[in-house]
Inverse folding.
């Protein structure tokens, strides 16, 4: 992976001896990075090492067997269709939600960037969905999706001109149930993309834009030649973060369907919750976590590498 | 764009039509996004019959604030305070530590790709999978049900996000300014605080907002790591959902109480963002 | 919270009661507990409790009262019922000793016993002379919530049982009765069988017109398995082959029962397939249903008992007060459906005091006060509760209500309670929700049975056979 910067040369230059001197530099670059790493190690390392050990043991609801059990849990996991299906479901959610959130967020950011009266209020209001506690949001959407007590079917009924009886949270048609979950997910997390893109767009070098304008570039040319390249680093990071967070998609699914009907909408986090939290199958869940981390690392590295080659 | 001293209202300007169109679009989109929020907030005032009416009731028949008073009296609002403390303090720490680390990564390529990947891999861990190890660790060092426990955890939890985001924003800042600052005799720290931070303030703002929101909304760690003393907002709210009861009015009222501080903070802090926007505004 | 010295008139009554029993020989179990606990004055007991209405009991009534009597402070850790088990086990494994007294759902008791979380209580029961009063607890609750493998691990503290609620105005209407008899050849009355339930539900869905339905049942994940377990056993089903421990839920009995559960959706409000207790209750209170099956509390609420209190202000106003009939579920073998026992945590530092608090709360006199609290979700569970003149006078039909509960307390079916019951229930739940959504019933149950066998293999067939035998040998595990 790496560098998402266009200033490779410049960065290298600054890392070279600088006016303050080599020693000061070396000291400084580590001084500022160590506190963060220390916190990550202190809080993150023990659970990770502990999980690694536990994933080779047999600790669950009933027994606390700390002897070495080899690949028992990993074997179980690999042979567990439900785990792979949950990964697939997670992938589907991510593949649909991520681009939609990006595009919606970009359009909203564009709208707010131009001259707009009351912009401050609009921006603050558009962030509200993200501030609602996900558990509450899920429960509230469940109420809204209810066939009898909820306004969604009512509004659809007005549009359709007759009663609409769609069962959003229990239905043998996956399209319906997935749509319901995706609507909530996109509603709650588009503000994230929106704000990050707004900040990135606001930082675009104004002189370049003016230059493009003077050159008589069309709007689309400006967008593709100046704006998009400029915000690309931030967009990639935002997509990575949001993508990783989507893999942890849990609250909304749990509140709306609990992964059901059956396992139709079960995401990997829902499955981990059932196995690890409710069933207290600690060793199995530790193994699951490691497989997920390895898979995600591979995906992220491959993605970043591709992006770099494409550059 | 007219200079400010002309003080001509925007609707008199040339191109007011486009502004009207944008305003209309913004209104429609905002209303769509806010409808569920409205629906939730309205439950704070609805009677139980209105929450579960068929066909649904769109607005409460009576506005009274009794539920809010009950929440205050019973001490449920403490959870809002607990959340403000844990999310607020951890955000400040994570933003500071994360941004300076991001600067090191962006400018000196400290640790190369491996360090960056290792950092982001911290965010790939499903929280559910490590919540018990964390609980064990905290039980040993006595951090269960304490502010410091949650603050430390949320700091660690948000650092990868802050580092990666801020690295992206910092890389966008031209190097020349820092170079000339160093030549002018500023120390590294001064350069960082006085030159770099202001340059990335829109990024800082955007990152801070969501660092805070992530900590604010975090549920599973807060659930396991608290008992009674530092119950956070998302955990407290689950107490209103029971097998044989759902306190919708309290859920709605708590959501209003919990949302307002965040909303006003964001609205106020937007000076940073808005100045950034006007700097980079483009004509569409 | 505003806590005066005396919170409710009921507390005052209870206080007068104690003042009158000074004689050591005539001491009640409650008095003995108080007297023995006084030496622990100044300590703090931490107790887990389901959040919400449930925990108002220790927060507003029993906790403050106990502190007043013994000087022992009570700290309540509230959490949703779904988190009770996991948090209890996690604290135990970490050895924190954070909890002294626990609320335990019977289905988890074997797991908690195997994990060493629960303190055996037999010695305490003898030491403080509580055995006699335990005999007053209705037999099914004792079976369901008290023992594992012959040892006492909990004091049964909640009379949870499913109850059929029906509308007396609709069932008593002469036109309805004539029309029903005409169509089905038997009298319109609360159903004795599930076939009758289907007839009546269909009948009223048609008769009540738009917005009215024959019934609604609780279908949400986490609870729906109770209804299946009840009906499955009533129809003659067995969960396992007792020798091989092969799952036997996917035979014709299981398929028939689940198919009928799906078919019943036709006579329920559209969308009821996703409904939980709250939606069902709201629909019932709004007068849209002719029948529903729920736990005991709506029996009190529908009659308006306590609904003017602030604690119940979240409840929609009942439009059916005075029109509510109580009956046992079809077949009169209602599922006990959860409930709570009070257990002492094995690694508590205050086991003695914790037990004494439990004995005091659970004793005849105090438990009667507790199940009569208007906001209580603890339901009557002692024979003396069902017969209490005081309780029977609370509202006009209270006697009828207690009688229906008493039937359940004698004939109710125990919740499945073996090793890792949760995993079996979770698998079964997915089969049911798949079916309710329109999936194939037989294949869903086949898959679930396969999963049950895998779970059993993982646990160890022998261990699970033992645990199952212990459970199945209890009188009300199966109907016969």
């Amino acid at each position: 992976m790496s560098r998402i910067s266009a200033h490779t040369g410049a960065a290298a230059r600054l890392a070279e001896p600088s006016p303050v001197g080599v020693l000061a530099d070396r000291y400084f670059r580590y001084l500022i990075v160590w506190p963060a790493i220390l916190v990550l190690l202190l809080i993150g390392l023990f659970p990770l090492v502990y999980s690694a050990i536990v994933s080779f043991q047999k600790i669950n609801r009933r027994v606390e067997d700390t002897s070495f059990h080899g690949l028992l849990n990993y074997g179980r996991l690999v042979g567990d269709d439900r785990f792979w299906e949950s990964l697939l479901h997670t992938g589907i959610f991510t593949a649909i939600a991520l681009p939609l959130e990006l595009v919606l967020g970009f359009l909203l950011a564009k709208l707010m960037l131009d001259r707009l009266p009351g912009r401050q209020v609009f921006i603050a209001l558009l962030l509200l969905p993200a501030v609602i506690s996900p558990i509450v949001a899920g429960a509230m959407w469940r109420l809204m999706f209810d066939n009898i007590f909820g306004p969604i079917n009512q509004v659809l009924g007005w549009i359709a001109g007759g009663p609409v009886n769609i069962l959003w949270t229990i239905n043998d048609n996956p399209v319906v149930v997935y749509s319901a979950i995706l609507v909530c997910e996109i509603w709650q997390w588009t503000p994230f993309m929106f704000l990050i893109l707004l900040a990135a767009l606001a930082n675009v070098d104004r002189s370049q834009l003016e230059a493009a304008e003077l050159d008589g570039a069309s709007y689309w040319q400006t967008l593709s030649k100046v704006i998009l390249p400029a915000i690309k680093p931030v967009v990639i990071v935002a997509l990575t973060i949001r993508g990783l967070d989507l893999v942890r998609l849990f609250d909304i699914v749990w509140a709306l369907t609990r992964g059901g009907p059956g396992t139709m909408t079960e995401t990997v986090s829902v499955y981990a919750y059932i196995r690890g939290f409710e069933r207290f199958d600690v060793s199995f869940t530790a193994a699951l976590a490691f497989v997920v981390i390895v898979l995600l690392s591979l995906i992220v590295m491959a993605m970043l590498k591709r992006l770099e080659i494409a550059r | 764009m007219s200079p400010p001293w002309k003080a001509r209202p925007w609707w008199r300007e040339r191109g007011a039509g486009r502004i009207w169109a944008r305003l209309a679009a913004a209104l429609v989109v905002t209303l769509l996004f806010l409808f569920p929020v409205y629906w939730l907030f309205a439950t704070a005032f609805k009677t139980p019959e209105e929450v579960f009416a068929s066909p649904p009731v769109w607005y409460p028949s009576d506005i009274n604030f009794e539920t809010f008073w009950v929440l205050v009296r019973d001490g449920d609002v403490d959870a809002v305070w607990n959340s403000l403390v844990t999310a607020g303090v951890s955000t400040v720490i994570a933003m500071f530590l994360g941004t300076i680390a991001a600067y090191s990564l962006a400018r000196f390529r400290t640790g190369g790709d491996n360090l960056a990947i290792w950092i982001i891999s911290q965010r790939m861990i499903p929280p559910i999978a490590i919540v018990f190890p964390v609980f064990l660790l905290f039980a040993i060092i006595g951090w269960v049900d304490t502010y410091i426990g949650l603050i430390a955890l949320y700091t660690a939890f948000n650092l990868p996000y802050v580092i990666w985001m801020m690295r992206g924003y910092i890389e966008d800042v031209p190097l020349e300014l820092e170079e000339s600052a160093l030549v002018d005799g500023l120390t590294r720290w001064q350069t960082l605080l006085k030159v770099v931070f202001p340059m990335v303030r829109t990024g800082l703002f955007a990152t801070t907002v969501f660092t805070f929101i992530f900590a604010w909304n975090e549920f599973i760690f807060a659930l396991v790591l608290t008992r009674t003393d530092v119950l956070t907002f998302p955990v407290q709210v689950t107490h209103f959902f029971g097998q044989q009861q759902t306190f919708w009015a309290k859920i709605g009222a708590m959501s209003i109480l919990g949302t307002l501080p965040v909303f006003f903070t964001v609205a106020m802090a937007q000076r940073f963002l808005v100045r950034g926007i006007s700097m980079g505004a483009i004509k569409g | 919270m505003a806590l005066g010295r005396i919170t409710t008139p009921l507390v005052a009554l209870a206080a007068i009661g104690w003042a009158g029993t000074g004689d050591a020989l005539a001491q009640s179990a409650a008095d003995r507990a108080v007297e023995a606990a006084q030496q622990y004055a100044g300590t703090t007991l931490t107790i887990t409790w389901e959040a919400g209405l449930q925990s108002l009991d220790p927060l507003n009534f029993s906790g403050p009262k106990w502190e007043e009597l013994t000087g022992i402070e009570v700290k309540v850790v509230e959490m949703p019922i779904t988190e009770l088990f996991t948090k209890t086990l996690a604290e135990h494994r970490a050895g924190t000793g954070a909890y002294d007294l626990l609320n335990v759902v019977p289905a988890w008791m074997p797991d908690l016993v195997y994990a060493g979380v629960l303190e055996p209580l037999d010695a305490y029961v003898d030491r403080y002379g509580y055995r006699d009063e335990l005999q007053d607890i209705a037999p099914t609750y004792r079976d369901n919530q008290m023992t594992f493998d012959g040892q006492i691990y909990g004091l049964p503290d909640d009379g949870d049982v499913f109850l059929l609620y029906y509308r007396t105005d609709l069932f008593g209407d002469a036109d309805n009765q004539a029309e029903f008899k005409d169509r089905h050849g038997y009298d319109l009355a609360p159903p004795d069988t599930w076939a009758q339930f289907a007839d009546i539900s269909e009948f009223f869905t048609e008769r009540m017109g738009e917005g009215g339905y024959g019934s609604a049942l609780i279908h949400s994940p986490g609870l729906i398995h109770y209804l299946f377990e009840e009906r499955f056993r009533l129809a003659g089903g067995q969960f396992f082959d007792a020798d091989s421990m092969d799952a036997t839920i996917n035979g014709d009995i299981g398929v028939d029962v689940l198919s009928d559960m799906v078919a019943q959706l036709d006579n329920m409000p559209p969308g009821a397939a996703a409904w939980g207790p709250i939606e069902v209750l709201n629909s019932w209170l709004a007068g849209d249903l002719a029948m529903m099956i729920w736990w005991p509390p709506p029996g009190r609420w529908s009659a308006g008992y306590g609904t003017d209190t602030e604690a119940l202000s979240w409840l929609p106003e009942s439009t059916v007060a005075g029109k509510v009939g109580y009956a046992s579920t079809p077949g009169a073998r209602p599922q006990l459906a959860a409930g709570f026992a009070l257990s002492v945590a094995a690694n508590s530092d205050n086991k003695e005091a914790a037990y004494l608090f439990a004995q005091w709360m659970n004793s005849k006199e105090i438990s009667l006060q507790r199940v009569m609290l208007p906001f209580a979700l603890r339901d009557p569970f002692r024979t003396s509760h069902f017969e209490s003149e005081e309780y029977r006078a609370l509202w006009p039909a209270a006697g009828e209500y207690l009688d229906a509960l008493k039937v359940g307390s004698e004939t109710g079916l125990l919740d499945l309670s073996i090793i890792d019951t949760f995993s079996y229930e979770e698998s079964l739940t997915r089969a049911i929700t798949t079916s309710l959504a329109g999936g194939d019933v037989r294949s869903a149950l086949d898959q679930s049975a396969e999963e049950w066998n895998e779970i059993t293999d993982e646990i160890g067939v022998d261990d699970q056979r033992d645990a199952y035998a212990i459970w199945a040998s209890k009188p009300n595990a199966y109907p016969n």
Remarks:
- The first helix of chain C runs from residue 9 to 20.
- Confidence is low (pLDDT under 50) at residues 1-25 of chain C.
- Residues 423 and 455 of chain C are 7 Å apart (CA to CA).
- Chain C touches chain B through 44 residues (CB under 8 Å).
